[in-house]
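INFO batch 0412 | record 1 of 1 | parsing
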Amino acid sequence: MRLLFFRRSRRGERGIAMVAVLVALSITLVMVMVTLTYVTGSVKYSRYEQDAERALAAAESGVNDLLTEFRVDPTYLAHIDATKADPDGYCNKDATGGPAADMDIYAAVCGWDPDMAARFQQLGEDQAYHYAIVSSADLAESIEVVSTGRSRDVYRSVKARLSRETPTMWLWLTDYELSDPNDALLWPGITNGFYPAGQLTSEECGWGWAAGATPPGLHYAWDSYPFTPASDGKFHTYQSALDPANPRYCDQARFGLGDELDGPVHSNDAIYAVEGKVYDQLSSSNPECKNVDPTDNTTWDRCVVGDVRSTGAPVIGHFQWLGPAPSYRRVLDLPTTQNAKVKAVDDGVGCAYAGPTRIILDGDEMIVWSKETTVYRDGCGSLAALASPSGARVDVPEEGLIYVGPATGVPPTKIHHGAIGDGLPLGNYEGQAPTPYAEYIEEWVMELPEMYDGIGNLWIEGHFTGGNLTIAADRIAVITGDLLQDNDDQDLIGVMAGQRIEIYNPMVIKNIANAAGTLWRYQEYEMTEPDSLPYTYVGTGLWPRDYDGRPGLRIEAAIYATSGSFGLQNWDIWGELGDLEVFGSIAQRFRGIMGSYDDNGKRGGYNKKYKYNKRLTEAAPLLFPPISNGVWRIAWQGKADPLDAVTGG
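INFO prediction complete | emitting tokens
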């Protein structure tokens, strides 16, 4: 009995073991199958990810392909022609063959059929790209392109904006480091106690030349033209052939103590610097910049100059270099014209005003005084309101453009108190017949013929919200207070002037009427603050107007004086005015003056605190012109959905 029982137990254990083995094998098989399935899926996913990355890289190659075409030929798209023999022409390239998205003009010119299949430029066996222009306001300025890459059957696309460099690519950009020889604020054609008599012309300014020599014209301080240094040590000097013993010069502004530039800086000229801080890249067309050793900061001052001694030897400037080493860059051809007039007047875009115009921005609205505007435009204010004491309150134009041009048929006559609107110009003389022996006060700057009636000048201040806004003046723009954008991530302001842009800093003169009721100057250029005026200005914070509660003046805008400079009215009066903060960019033909130093080194005017708005690397204000010899670049680039016509979807 025991033996029988023992044999049954061994047989049962063998059965259980067999079952266990079979179960284990089954589990192992399932695990192997799961693992194989996972591995297979991972391989497929890895392959897909690899193809996706390769497709994205191919799409970026398409953008770079078009960028290369523009850099080789900046007018590449301006001469599209389907019949061109050039195999690299836009219409004939494999990378562009096929539908042109929404650009009907290219479809028509190139003969593209919207139903035809897109061609691809091969990069390798399984990699290719196709790109198409999808929008362009002006082929000379910027375009948008969608480029699609393909790797096997995987597509990825990027959208990019290609644009030429504009003056807004730099925080601070100047052509000549001398004061504008045509600026009547510096060189008025009248004799007075503040300025030398007579006004120099552009041809009379430059490095300088020997007495009696024919002026060779305007040129940079680093030019190699032979010169005789003036006894007063001025850097840019004109020694008159008529009076060689008395050199005349165009003042050369300099960076001084308290000045700070936080952003890229470039000058075509030799920058004149005594003190100040530079936090970013500085470049100059001064050939001495070629001799800078990036690893030896004792050589960095070769890019700038400080002063010129009577021997002609330069004194090195004393910038505090807080960024990378300065560098050399060729002369940039700054545009001297603006096309805002064409868009606003000829094409009817935005608001167009005529003659002296005063604007206060107020969020997405604005108050406008412009009594010489005679052509009504819907949404820009009625003619009666524009000429009224209270002005016209209207919405800021959706198109983002405001232009002030000359008035038709208005004779150039002097402007008196209140004629512009908002109490400007300051003073108490309104053009009435003078009362014998009465005293009258007027702004000195309004004595200048370029500030008369009929001229397209602008007075601007306020705060703006609502997107991209360009305000352009045919001649002069005067900033009368803080100019602020409400949202730095959404708003962008541009101020452009055909001549110069000024910071408001009024000085008044006093006239007295004689017994016959004829005005004559009682005390020339008297600096006074009579209680009888509707506004006082120095020390009150009212002029320039304050909007953010901070001392000094703040301008959040891209500034461009196309043929003049960006400077301070009456820069040598009133003592220290605090900090001028500019958040944006400044471009000017000549170097503007924002203050002065006395014999004791004390400063008057503004300390410059300039900081670059990095948004300007991606987008310039509307209609800011490109630099004619500027390089094309990728302003921005991001992922996009592939075009159906390209993928066959």
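INFO post-check: DSSP finds five helices and 37 strands in the chain.
INFO record closed
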